[in-house]
Design goal:
Blueprint: H1 4-15, E1 18-21, H2 27-40, E2 44-48, H3 54-64, E3 70-74, H4 79-87, E4 92-94, H5 100-108, E5 112-114, E6 116-117, H6 120-129, E7 134-136, H7 139-153, E8 161-164, H8 172-178, E9 182-185, H9 196-214
Helix pairs in contact: 2-3, 2-9, 4-5, 7-8, 8-9
């Protein structure tokens, strides 16, 4: 049976499977950025752990978003980081790679886990470990054709695939057509230099593009 974190992640992702990757988010800006994203329609927020203040920023985001939003930790490399993220309120662990220990620790903690994969070997290994989703990374290197080939051999009933790296509103259609169940967006959506208003505008453009390729309205 799926754990609680995985169930919530799948429920939220079914409505809007766009992941906002907030690399370099400072605690002082965490509330404003989170509110801008949620107001624009985002329901999954990832805060990478490769910044000293990431856990502090995560706690603030967790405290201000509604229950319909999933907050996760990105760039999770160790079991210890998985435990720290859980303590800060993370509900999903996102990895740039595939590591058995991190996946196992995340599942033990009741969190959804999304390891990074690039090849069929990595993808099948991640599924065998019980991954809840697969992060195709770096997506711009694999390309939509690479994803299409990967999707052709993976069991359709298992974990969804998120394309992460280089996705823009204009390129969302080919990724969706190739089989991406969702996308992760970093620098095209957020950098510390963007104002909250600009982040909101960019977020709305991504949400509108996803709804367009999915054929869904507001």
């Amino acid at each position: 049976m799926k754990n609680g974190g995985a169930l919530k992640f799948r429920e939220v992702a079914a409505a809007m499977p766009l992941v906002a990757i907030l690399r370099g988010l400072q605690p002082a800006r965490a509330e404003g950025v989170a509110r801008a994203l949620v107001d624009a329609g985002f329901r999954i927020i990832e805060i990478p752990l490769n910044r000293d203040v990431a856990l502090e920023a995560m706690r603030i985001v967790v405290g201000v978003v509604p229950p319909s939003v999933v907050v996760g930790a990105g760039t999770v490399l160790t079991r210890a980081q998985a435990r720290e993220a859980h303590g800060a309120g993370a509900q999903i662990l996102v990895m740039p790679h595939l590591d058995r220990g991190v996946v196992e620790e995340g599942r033990r903690l009741g969190l959804a886990v999304m390891p990074g994969v690039m090849t069929p070997t990595e993808a099948f290994a991640a599924l065998d470990l019980g991954a809840d989703a697969l992060k195709l990374f770096p997506a711009e290197v694999v390309g939509a054709d690479g994803l299409k080939a990967l999707r052709a051999v993976l069991p359709s009933s298992q974990a969804p695939i998120y394309a992460v790296g280089g996705v823009t509103p204009d390129t969302m259609a080919p990724w969706h057509e190739a089989g991406a169940d969702g996308v992760g967006i970093g620098g095209a959506l957020f950098t510390p230099a963007f104002s909250d208003d600009e982040i909101g505008l960019r977020a709305r453009a991504f949400v509108a593009a996803w709804r367009s390729v999915r054929g869904t309205g507001e």
